[in-house]
Amino acid sequence: MRAIAKTEPAPGHIREVEVAEPTLGPGQVLLRVRGGGLCGTDLAIRRWDADIAAEYAPSFPHVLGHEFAGRVEAVATDVAGIAVGAQAVVNPHVNCGRCFYCNAGRHALCLQRRIMGCHAPGGLTECIAVPADNVFVLPDGTDPLVAAVIEPLTVATHAALERVPMDAGDVALVMGAGPVGLLHLLVARAAGAAEVIVAGVAADADRLALARRLGAVTVDQESEDLLAAVRRVAPRGADVAYDASGHPAALAAALPTLRRGGRLAVVGYCHAAAPFHSLPLALDEKEIFGCRAYNRGTWVRSTALSASLASELRQLVTHVLPFGEIDRAFSLLERRECMKVVVEPEGNG
Length: 349
Description:
Layout: E1 2-6, E2 14-18, E3 28-37, H1 40-47, H2 50-56, E4 62-63, E5 67-75, E6 87-90, E7 93-94, H3 100-103, E8 114-115, E9 127-131, E10 135-137, H4 144-147, H5 150-163, E11 171-175, H6 179-190, E12 195-200, H7 205-213, E13 217-220, H8 226-233, E14 238-243, H9 250-254, E15 258-266, H10 279-283, E16 287-290, H11 296-308, H12 310-316, E17 317-322, H13 326-334, E18 340-344
Parallel strand pairs: 11-12, 11-14, 12-13, 14-15, 15-16, 17-18
Antiparallel strand pairs: 1-2, 1-4, 3-5, 3-9, 3-18, 5-6, 6-10, 7-8
């Protein structure tokens, strides 16, 4: 069976390999994968960044893929409510379900959490056996390419509807014009934001153009003053901001754009110090919230939201490539020449 795997604990070494067919165990569902998205985490695994190597420590060859969807091929005899042939998407986070955080409904904080495609074998393969509790059935006829981006949509849903929810009529600022940034744009608009401002840089020109087509006001921070641009839209400042860039300068840039009492969600992972001036934070009672992935309940919301946003989500998928072109897929991602790239096992349709 074909799969995309990292074969050695060193930079590079990602290629198509042959792996054993999965065995269906109790409480599991066998999924025939239609496609999976690549993201910055996959890029970090490819580079084999030191913090990624320490956090995930997988065995090799390690099958990638934490953003994937497909069709149910088989279900274990003890699984109910999931039919063979159904379209489905998979929550790649496997939680213990028993710890303090799981019992509080905050599954993202589970200390025993293992992520398919990161700690454990992932979904960039022809078939995968996954826990039934991690399977979310989609409406018949769901575009497979829309299904493949529901996982990152769930990240944006957690940030913009759960951690830092907005009120209808709010003005939202999104730092970063990549896929996660534009997914925050879509969720914010669905939540009733009056305006959404997406901030990027000159290299994001195509991405910012897509953001405008999706209804955003855009700012190129290399040629425009971000604070002035936000104040033109919201004279007292943005109500909420979401940093989807992970850039160390983003917090310092975003905080002054918030109104008094405004809230900032830190979504993108920054692997360096991110200094900012803290006195205005105290004097203006602004708030900063960390956002990590999602909880199980977030998937109920995001799968429902994906149906109403299907047209917009499809626009985010700019490249669809077969497994055999995995090097090109990563090259597009590295050079920022794509929005969302989805890779597919040929013949799995």
